[in-house]
Design a protein that fits this description.
Helices cover about 40% and strands about 15% of the residues. With about 475 residues, it is of the alpha/beta class. It folds into two domains: about 15-220 and about 400-405, 3-Layer(aba) Sandwich (Rossmann fold), CATH 3.40.50; about 230-400, Rossmann fold, CATH 3.40.50. Helix 10 links the parallel strand 10 (about 320) and strand 11. Helix 1 crosses helix 14 and helix 10 (about 330-335) crosses helix 13 (about 380-400).
């Protein structure tokens, strides 16, 4: 697959920016999958992470440690999901991979690129698309709001922070809004839910910001149903019984609702034990931490790499998530791709992935009794479980094929390049009447020259103004 808007001798070049790469969390995994699909589609993809940049000065590292320690000790019991300040601020616009890119695709960049860094990226002359993986880009620091609506106004009185730190969240949002107001930015949201939250936020500028929904993708050749019996033998699981998979990077993250999932399974197991002939369910878990469910056989697999997650999926019968907030979770996508139906809460992007009674079943947030009733029904009706799993796989093939995601990103890159060319033509026409400026401005600058201008130090402001006047932009 290739994009016709890019000539054969110049495949699209995309720079993906993220704090971390590899199996370092859901956002990093999603970005790595996208990069792999784009490469298969013919694009040149450069991954740029914080580890690829020079070490920050000592003073910057000291401030960063102080902020992290202050936030860690200033959290309230409401949430233990990550909360970060809009600092530090690496300037990546001059990096060769960025300067040479047809599209700069920003991903999860907390602790790496701040709002000021995003603005500098745009000002460097590269088209920028920011893929959202959580709410952090448009809040005062929280990665999920825990029901708070502060991000729609000014983030004052943040319920996730002690009063002494309330000013931090408010100032962080206000600073980001000032930096990004009027900056032409393309946001990409994997779910309609997250796109809607962005548009409701105080940061979103209707005049200059745009958002489109492009769901994440997955390699459907790799993630598929396997030999269930063989996978169970390898993991030391019983051959029979409903195997319920509970997986997360951190099982003790309260947002993931593992406690409500444990309650639901315990209720279901107790009821099934009272019914003659009903096999007891077993639970397979993975991630940091450990989930103990009294009276239920649990097999905790610890932290897994991709191959381990795939084996756990192929050994299980369904996936259970009682998350209280989530975007378009990899765990749900992986389960459906492997033919496992999903019992999930009706929150975030879950309803966009699971139609109630089709690919799985939806329950209200924190409603462990309803989830337990669903599990009891499914434990006694394996044919329904298998049928929903088949429909889940069909849904994955229609909507989350990594090749489809790559094609949509290549179309976006082509659109950005076309807009850039049109803007240059417009500037050139306008500059034809400004002979003095035209005489001073070069007709073409290489990416390295653009990067040099960007690093202009004390002259950065005048150079930016010159760049806006130049016809080569």
């Amino acid at each position: 697959m290739s994009d016709p808007s890019f000539c054969a001798g110049h495949p699209p070049r995309i720079a993906c920016l993220a704090t971390h790469a590899g199996h370092a969390g859901g956002a990093a995994i999603a970005m790595e999958r996208l990069a792999a699909a784009l490469r298969v589609a013919g694009a040149r993809v450069d991954l740029l992470t914080r580890a690829d940049m020079p070490a920050a000065p000592t003073a910057v590292r000291r401030v960063e440690r102080i902020l992290r320690r202050g936030i860690r000790h200033g959290r309230t019991p409401l949430s233990n999901t990550l909360l970060t300040a809009d600092w530090p601020a690496w300037d990546v616009a001059g990096h060769p991979a960025v300067a040479a890119a047809d599209l700069v695709n920003v991903h999860w960049v907390a602790g790496f690129v701040s709002a000021a860094g995003i603005r500098r990226l745009v000002e460097s002359g590269r088209p920028v698309a920011w893929t959202l993986h959580d709410m952090r880009p448009f809040t005062g620091g929280c990665h999920y709001a825990s029901g708070c609506e502060g991000f729609t106004t000014d983030c004052r009185g943040c319920p996730q922070l002690a009063p002494r730190l309330h000013a931090l969240a408010a100032r962080s949002l206000a600073r980001a809004r000032r930096r990004l107001k009027g900056v032409p930015l393309e946001f990409i949201a994997p779910s309609r839910w997250l796109a809607g939250e962005l548009v409701r936020s105080r940061l979103f500028d209707e005049a200059s910001h745009r958002v489109r929904v492009i769901p994440n993708g997955i390699d459907l050749d790799r993630y598929a149903a396997g030999d269930r019996a063989a996978a169970r033998r390898r993991l030391g699981l019983p051959a029979e019984g409903l195997a319920i998979l509970l997986g997360s990077v951190a099982l003790d993250e309260r947002r993931k609702g593992a406690g409500f999932a444990a309650e639901a399974v315990a209720r279901a197991a107790a009821e099934l034990a009272r019914r003659n002939g009903s096999p007891a369910p077993l639970v397979v878990t993975y991630g940091s931490g450990e989930l103990v469910i009294p009276g239920v056989a649990c097999r905790h697999l610890g932290r897994l790499d991709e191959a381990g997650v795939l084996e756990a999926l192929q050994a299980s019968d369904l996936h259970l998530t009682m998350a209280r907030e989530d975007n378009l979770p990899n765990t749900v996508m992986e389960a459906l791709a492997c033919g496992l139906p999903v019992v999930a809460t009706r929150t975030g992007g879950h309803p966009e992935m699971v139609a109630d009674g089709v690919e799985g079943w939806l329950v209200a947030v924190d409603d462990a009794p309803a989830a337990a009733a669903t599990l009891i029904r499914l434990a006694e009706d394996p044919a329904t479980v298998r049928a929903a799993g088949r429909r889940g796989r069909e849904r994955a093939e229609r909507e989350w094929d990594a090749r489809l995601q790559a094609r949509r990103y290549l179309e976006l890159a082509a659109e950005c390049r076309a807009r850039e060319r049109a803007a240059r033509v417009t500037e050139s026409v306008a500059a034809s009447g400004r002979s003095t400026t035209a005489a001073l401005a070069p007709s073409r600058l290489t990416p390295a020259a653009v990067a040099a201008l960007h690093r202009g130090g004390p002259l950065r402001g005048p150079l930016r103004r010159l760049r806006r006047l130049a016809p080569w932009r």
